[in-house]
Specification:
Layout: E1 12-19, E2 25-36, E3 42-51, H1 53-80, H2 85-92, E4 103-109, E5 120-127, H3 138-141, H4 145-148, E6 157-159, H5 170-178, E7 183-191, E8 194-203, H6 215-221, H7 228-235
Antiparallel strand pairs: 1-2, 2-3, 4-5, 4-8, 6-7, 7-8
């Protein structure tokens, strides 16, 4: 900052990072200005440094939130222009949090009032790329009540560590591992207070998603009776 050109005599502010002796990173904002003597000659320079690390963290969090709202708007806009469940599922899977997924499935109850007890239809499936090997036992997974016991109609569920998760029954574990699944997320599909089914998203490794991170996505796919997917199902 001392070497900076001061010919304009204008104050300036510079933001930079420092590494403290304990290896922690801090953000510093430094405001500098010149003090002149009576003859308007530069007498000395004043530098005021302020630690703005917390402020910077808040700013970054706000930017991430804004980015998520923008993504939610984009997803909602794309879905409003689609008419087929396949197109809707492809749009949903473009959400940033779900891009590492390898598989996904939209599941709807044959009788929404009765829930999974009266049968489930695999409406449409999604693969990260067409070269993925077939998961032969996938439909058997959705016939097991142990699977539906994991689904919560009021919130999304994140299941990690399939290989040794005590919440997963032996049969479910065998089916999931056959598909090379290590974690999955279950999103309930609810409209007008009626539980219609769920979106199941599968990953081949553990994911570190939180319910807070997925909140904006949940609000997108549970956007009420105007949702194009729900309208499509109602027409069938």
């Amino acid at each position: 900052m001392v070497a900076r050109d001061h010919s304009t005599h204008k104050p300036f502010t510079q933001v930079y990072r420092i590494i403290r002796p304990d290896d922690s990173l801090r953000w510093i904002s430094c405001h500098a200005f010149l003090v002149h003597d009576d003859a308007n000659n530069r007498d000395y320079q004043v530098n005021i440094a302020q630690d703005i690390t917390k402020q910077n963290q808040v700013d970054q969090a706000l930017r991430k939130t804004l980015d998520r709202f923008r993504e939610q708007f984009t997803l909602s806009r794309r879905m409003s222009l689609t008419r087929k469940p396949e197109a809707v599922l492809k749009t949903l899977m473009s959400a940033q949090e779900l891009r590492p997924a390898q598989r996904a499935a939209l599941l709807f109850f044959n009788d929404p009032k009765a829930g999974p007890n009266h049968g489930v239809e695999l409406t449409v499936a999604w693969l990260s790329h067409q070269g993925k090997p077939a998961w032969l036992s996938e439909t058997s997974l959705y016939e097991e009540m142990d699977f539906w016991n994991l689904v919560q109609p009021s919130r999304s569920m994140i299941i990690n560590s399939v290989s040794d998760n005590p919440r997963i029954s032996t049969l479910l574990r065998e089916i999931l591992l056959e598909g090379k699944i290590q974690s999955f997320v279950l999103f309930p599909i609810v409209t007008s207070g009626i539980w219609l089914g769920c979106l199941a998203v599968y990953f081949e490794e553990d994911v570190q998603l939180s319910h807070i991170e997925l909140a904006h996505f949940k609000s997108t796919h549970r956007s009420g009776h105007h949702h194009p997917l729900q309208s499509q199902i109602a027409k069938n």
